[in-house]
Write a structure and sequence with these properties.
- The structure holds 2 protein chains of 2 kinds.
- Chain A is an alpha+beta fold.
- Chain A is 30% helix and 18% strand.
- Chain A has helices at residues 16-47, 64-93, 214-223, 229-239, 277-285, 308-320, and strands at 100-107, 110-114, 120-124, 139-143, 148-154, 159-163, 168-172, 178-182, 188-194, 207-212, 264-266, 272-274.
- Chain A is elongated and about 95 Å long.
- Chain A starts with 15 loop residues before the first helix and ends in a 29-residue tail after the last helix.
- The model of chain A is unreliable at 329-349 (pLDDT under 50).
- By secondary structure, chain B is mainly alpha-helical.
- In chain B, helix 4 (105-118) runs parallel beside helix 7 (172-199), helix 5 (127-149) runs antiparallel to helix 7 and helix 14 (399-429) runs antiparallel to helix 15.
- The chains are: A alpha+beta, B mainly alpha.
- Chains A and B meet through helix 1, helix 2, strand 7 and strand 9 of A and helix 3, helix 10, helix 11, helix 12 and helix 13 of B.
- The structure holds copper (II) ion (CU) (2 copies).
- One copper (II) ion binds at residues 269, 272, 315, 318-319 of chain B.
């Protein structure tokens, strides 16, 4: 029953050890200060215990030198903590360019995982889950030794994607994308939890991160071949009639989308934005929030008309678009054969 | 009265009953009888007792939820309650304890009783408003209790949207309205305290002669006045979204869920200081009285209260490092959170220095004060872990946070409240409490508390999430320790309930100044006469002048 006792999480990501170091520094200072304070407190209490009922000690009103000492020294200490924290924080925030991307959508009480190559996994409280622990088949595969970037959102309330052994978590917020990146260091199974309270089965909305060597991971990816996310997005692009306006011609009514991902875009109001996932999402769901320079606000909002999955498919497609990729209006060419890194072939009309 | 220099009592223990003759004196308790005389009173001392009853009831209600939570968490599986029931349990524990005990506790019981007396005044500036705020508090309690009985609420005390605006199976509204109504009670009390402190100080009682309890009550009142309207507005917006379907926080309707968190924490972080500042004021009184020393660095302690009140408004974003808020905002919030730790540290060092070469009594209130300093230090310093964004990413929403804020709230606020209650009990009731029992209870609370919450730091860093009805097997040992501690802690809180009741009838009479303490409240009778002083006192000395006769 009490087989395993966890007193400390495993160290399984590149950042985990560094977070532990900072943690131990802060805890070390904490323990030192509270021990000294407690010892002094107890010493005074015993040493100066009242000896006679009418005893009155000499007053001491204070000391500017002491006040300055115990204001400035702690100030320096906390500023060191702050500086160290900021340095580490920006490492957590900025994902490397070449990270493997995985889309994760939370909903009460499961996580739907979409690999761009088409594989789908589900973590969390499944009908087959037994009491207490998540289904053992509740797994999400990631490669070891390369950066992995999760693009998170939620279909209903706020959830939070948390892997203690990686020391990382990030809220999944409905209506927007947030990201979390990590690099697993050792193959293994690591627990994953939902950390933001989300209702009845919040405590069961978790599972296992299965970290695999890259070759093994590639094998797993291709073993369960499905249509890639971008390919599905291409079908969606045609179905939703996006193609009517986003024709790819320079004089079209809507911007050219080829190669748009992560480019700097000029807006009508003079500002610029980077066309990341968040911007692409907003441009589909609520296109009038920001108008690209040189275009009219004529696109209808797709708020509520596309599921989170369909949105992810569309965005994966947009991200995959290279120059000349826009398919012709009358779909005749069959989709290309599925490969693990499959992207639609360019179609020259 | 305070012009007379301090002279220490000649003997301990405390004089016995009878030394004060038969009960012929008129005091605020025996001046009128019957339920009406209590429910319609405008005497701040009687209103303080009304609050004491209501708040004690809410404390035991919140405590009962805590007991049930700890019993459920003895085992990893959710076996005692359904997860839905468990979720209601921790929500109601949080709401009752935060809004109905910790926020009003020290100000409305000890503050109401003591503030006018410490100022040498006959009452608060607006006595009727004071009674009104008690009724508003009761109304808030009733609305919340109605919500608990009729459907319950499972949103967590933080009411995060869109969960709180969507979930249909809970009665969010009566509870939210209860909390909203309660806000008005806090605002009225704060207004009363501010006006009273400005206008009703006794002749000679200048700002820098004020006891530190008055300073910290004043700082708290400012925070209440500035912060509470924000939570009121936020709860109104939640109601508008739930009923009118206007999209404010729900992205499905075009709202922004993170906006709610900004608004909520803009109030609720300062609320942490609403809960801890009055407690710090109590500790300043206890440390000086039981060491017979003036406070070390009076002005630094007083200004630390004001600094905490101001900076406390600028750190709310440290609750949101993983919410997706701008990383630059997170960086600024982190910096200010680190800086706000300094005035708290300054207070701890000054209290400790006050004891140096003092004449230290080991009476129960002092045990609570020493417990407070130790536990609050741990609570405050673990806050430095949470102020660091990268470490917070790992520990936020885990039991590490639960342990941290219980060290501050229970180890801090409740220890100070209990210490203050023991210290001023003779003044409030005219009777001493039984010292032996009280010491035993204080020790039980201290050890029970540490056994309950220390393991939670470990299990939190190991990765156990808060608000989990069931958890993975690896965490069980630490949870069993925690539950064992909680049962000791619960017993430690029940004891005073018994012996305080006993003392009302059977204990020794206290006399005006059983502790040999300075302060205007100790110059009048115990219990005080209806208008506090027979003659309006004139103040010439700073507070805590124990050695002027030398
Ligand atoms: Cu959850
Ligand atoms: Cu805070």
């Amino acid at each position: 029953m009490l087989a395993e006792i966890a007193l400390f999480p495993k160290t399984a990501s590149t950042i985990a050890g560094d977070i532990d170091s900072l943690y131990f520094f802060i805890i070390g200072v904490t323990v030192a200060i509270s021990t000294v304070t407690a010892l002094v407190l107890v010493y005074f209490t015993i040493r100066y215990h009242r000896k006679r009922p009418d005893e009155v000690p000499k007053p001491i009103h204070g000391s500017l030198a002491l006040e300055l000492t115990w204001t400035l020294i702690p100030l320096v200490i906390v500023l060191i903590m702050f500086g160290w924290s900021v340095k580490l924080y920006f490492r957590i925030l900025v994902a490397p360019e070449d990270a493997v991307e995985i889309y994760v959508t939370g909903r009460q009480w499961m996580w739907k995982v979409q690999h761009p190559e088409g594989q789908r996994e589900i973590l969390g409280y499944l009908p087959s889950s037994v009491e207490g622990v998540p289904d053992p088949g509740s797994e999400m595969h990631v490669p070891v030794g390369v950066p992995v970037k999760l693009i998170l959102t939620s279909e209903d309330v706020i959830h939070s994607f948390y892997v203690p052994d990686f020391r990382l978590k990030q809220d999944a917020v409905p209506g927007r994308y947030t990201t979390l990146w990590f690099q697993a260091t050792k193959p293994g199974r690591y627990r994953m939890f939902c950390a933001e309270y989300c209702g009845t089965n919040h405590s069961k909305m978790g599972g296992w991160i299965v970290a695999q060597e890259q070759s093994e991971f590639q094998q797993w990816l291709s073993s369960k071949a499905d249509r890639s996310l971008a390919l599905k997005g291409r079908a969606q692009f045609l179905k939703q009639q996006c193609i009517s306006c986003h024709t790819g011609d320079a004089d079209a009514r809507a911007p050219v989308l080829e190669g748009i991902y992560n480019q700097k875009r000029q807006m009508a109001d003079g500002s610029t934005v980077i066309a990341d996932e968040a911007y692409l999402r907003e441009s589909i769901v609520n296109p009038r929030a920001r108008i690209a320079a040189g275009f009219q606000p004529i696109m209808p909002p797709y708020q509520g008309q596309l599921s989170e999955e369909e949105l992810l498919e569309l965005i994966a497609y947009l991200k995959s678009l290279k120059r000349g990729d826009i398919p012709p209006r009358n779909e005749e060419t069959p989709p290309p054969a599925v490969k693990p890194d499959a992207l639609p072939e360019p179609n020259k009309p | 009265m305070s012009t007379v220099a301090y002279s220490p009592p000649k003997a301990e223990p405390i004089p016995v009953a009878g030394d004060y003759g038969p009960e012929t004196r008129v005091d605020y308790i025996n001046c009128a009888w019957g339920v009406r005389s209590w429910l319609l009173t405008v005497d701040h001392k009687r209103i303080a007792l009304l609050y004491l009853f209501a708040i004690t009831a809410m404390f035991f209600l919140g405590g009962a939820f805590a007991v049930l939570i700890r019993i459920e968490l003895l085992t990893p599986k959710s076996d005692l309650f359904e997860p839905d029931t468990y979720n209601r349990m921790f929500t109601m524990h949080g709401i009752v304890m935060t809004f109905f005990f910790l926020i009003p506790g020290v100000p409305s019981v000890l503050g109401n009783f003591l503030l006018p007396i410490m100022l040498g005044a006959k009452d608060l500036a607006f006595p009727k408003l004071n009674l009104a705020s008690w009724y508003i508090y009761i109304l808030g309690c009733l609305l919340t209790l109605a919500g608990i009985i009729w459907g319950g609420i499972d949103t967590g005390w933080t009411f995060y949207t869109p969960y709180s605006t969507r979930s249909a199976h809970t009665s969010v509204m009566p509870v939210a309205v209860g909390v909203l109504v309660l806000g008005f009670s806090s605002i009225l009390t704060a207004l009363n305290f501010i006006v009273t402190t400005h206008t009703m100080r006794a002749p000679g009682l200048t700002w820098f002669k004020l006891p530190l309890f008055v300073w910290s009550s004043y700082a708290t009142s400012l925070v209440v006045m500035l912060g509470t309207p924000v939570i009121t507005t936020t709860l109104v917006l939640v109601a508008v979204e739930r009923f009118a379907g206007v999209g404010i926080f729900d992205p499905k309707a075009g709202g922004d869920p993170v906006l709610f968190q900004h608004l909520f924490w803009f109030y609720s972080h300062p609320a942490v200081y609403i809960m801890i500042l009055p407690a710090m004021g109590v500790i300043s009184e206890l440390v000086t009285a039981f060491s017979r020393k003036t406070i070390f660095g009076y002005q630094f302690v007083a200004f630390a209260s004001m600094a905490i009140a101001v900076f406390g408004f600028l750190v709310w974003g440290h609750h949101m490092f993983v919410s997706g808020q701008s990383p630059y905002a997170s960086t600024i919030f982190s910096l200010i959170s680190y800086v706000v730790a300094i005035p708290s540290a300054v207070k701890v060092f000054n209290w400790t220095a006050t004891l140096y070469k003092g004449s230290i009594s080991w009476a129960t209130p002092m045990l609570y004060a020493i417990g407070f300093i130790g536990l609050f230090t741990i609570g405050g310093l673990t806050g430095l872990v949470l102020a660091s964004p990268p470490v917070d990413v790992h520990v936020t929403d885990t039991y590490f946070v639960v342990a941290h804020f219980h060290y501050v709230m229970v180890g801090g606020t409740i220890m100070a409240y209990m210490g203050g209650l023991h210290y001023w009990w003779p003044k409030m009731t005219g009777r001493m409490y039984p010292e032996g029992w009280a010491k035993a209870a204080a020790l039980l609370v201290f050890f029970g508390f540490n056994l309950t919450f220390f393991p939670q730091f470990l299990v939190g860093y190991a990765g156990m999430n808060r608000r989990y009805a069931s958890y993975v097997d690896e965490f069980q040992v630490l949870n069993v320790l925690s539950t064992a501690g909680a049962s000791i802690l619960g017993f430690g809180f029940l004891l005073p309930f018994g012996y305080f009741g006993w003392s009302l009838r059977y204990a020794k009479a206290a006399g005006p100044n059983p502790w040999g303490a300075t302060g205007l409240e100790w110059t009048t009778e115990s219990p005080p006469p209806p208008h506090n002083f027979e003659v309006t006192p004139t103040v010439t000395l700073p507070p805590y002048e124990y050695a002027t006769h030398n």
